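seq:
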Amino acid sequence: MVGAENHLYADKAGTQPLVDITLNPGDILHLSDDRLFHSVDGIEQLDSEAPFERFIIIINSRFVDDFQNRMLRRHFPEAVLNESY
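struct:
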């Protein structure tokens, strides 16, 4: 498996890049989504016959950004979010 390249930005629009990094197996990227912005390229298996797993853990303690809440709802409709009005 080849790791996906992660892109970190200082702004939502992605016009202020900070770093591009490929994580190794077992590495973790931990960030505060309301202060640092992130995108990731797709990953591909080198051997399509080999078992494959990818884990994404989102800890939503307090999202204050409507955009991020909409993206979570779009991609994870079953997620339990603490939504405040």
